[in-house]
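Sample entry (114 residues):
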Amino acid sequence: MTDIVSVYAVFADDEEARRIAGIVVEERLAACANILGSCHSIYRWQGKVEEASEVPAIFKTSADAAPKLVERMAALHSYDVPAIVVWPIADTLRLYGEWVEASVAERAGRGTRA
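Predicted structure, serialized as tokens:
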């Protein structure tokens, strides 16, 4: 098991996904965000089945930073109840894991500036 995780979230549109991704990467809550293509979602909301186009994204971060990332994304999100989930990573390329950790470590005061 590694110390990095992926955080999956969906957004109302590409602009919202890009805006929030830019903020959380700038704030060092995530090392990277992959904004995927539009998807069609079917879901139950307030007792009715709804359909909408949404934009999913995957954020890479450390397990330590994940709770702050989830909290920050929820605060920035346009949905009342945004879908934001943390996925554990079983294994990864060591250098990639180190890059993710270093990318968020400085915010948490664990790293040093190069």
